């Protein structure tokens, strides 16, 4: 009985204990890690990947997977820059255009999967390559900035509006310093909204039911195809929000800036399986997973760890977290027998 209690405790709280241990280690080993400014930087660094990861979580809930989120985010970044710098559109119009693009991409992904029966990995992989190529065509592969020379020889006269840049650069007051960036607030609001949707609404429960047993969910009246399409549309919109925030932070359409968004977002979503022993996709776990990745990278950076070791460490942590979760859960399911 005692062994069972220890096992249940390890499954439920083991990852959070690991997270607190990591914070303590970096606080003692890296000067300045425990400062409020460092905490604000960590939150800012995980906000965009966290938002993308929340979208991935919705597709995982319905037993799917979206590989196109990184390219959707980068396309949103380039589209917002193109709209304001080259087409001279307003910030509001650029944001609405990007959100519409994300929803359309999610809709196409969903239709490919549920109507044309293309496997989710193949459908979203194809969309990823399509978007990577599409976003480069208007500028012939160049990044977008005010005053840039266009392919036809003219000069771009538009600029990023201050209202748009506010989304990525403004900081709210916290005690005595301006330490809370707008992307962090948007990340927290998005995480809360998706958590409420998945955990507290009938629609969210039906999406979990579809992911667990699609046939049984259909028998109780759930419109499986509609919910799957909705999941991919949510993923597309959240990815476009991430791209908007990244563009607002950079102030330019940097075509290479979203290279790591896919891997970091997927890592956060999958690490979320280990939080509180959920062993399933969930918004709270994803948010904690994104925070874990940010703390890990910030700590390694402040300890002057070589940059080329960071992906290795992220991969190792992801593997350990998932093995830890599913191995211990399997032991609990078998009554602790080996």
UniProtKB/TrEMBL annotation:
Q: Which domain of life is it from?
A: Bacteria
Q: Does the keyword Transmembrane apply?
A: yes
Annotated membrane topology: Multi-pass membrane protein
Q: Which GO terms describe its molecular function?
A: transmembrane transporter activity
Q: Where are the transmembrane segments?
A: 6-28, 40-62, 68-87, 94-115, 121-139, 179-198, 229-248, 260-277, 283-300, 312-330
List where in the cell it is found.
Answer: Cell membrane
Question: Pfam families under this entry?
Answer: BPD_transp_2
Species name: Neptunicoccus cionae
Q: Which GO cellular component terms are attached? A: plasma membrane
UniProt-recorded name of the protein: ABC transporter
Q: Which InterPro entries match?
A: ABC_transp_permease (IPR001851)
Keyword terms of this UniProt record: Cell inner membrane, Cell membrane, Membrane, Transmembrane, Transmembrane helix, Transport
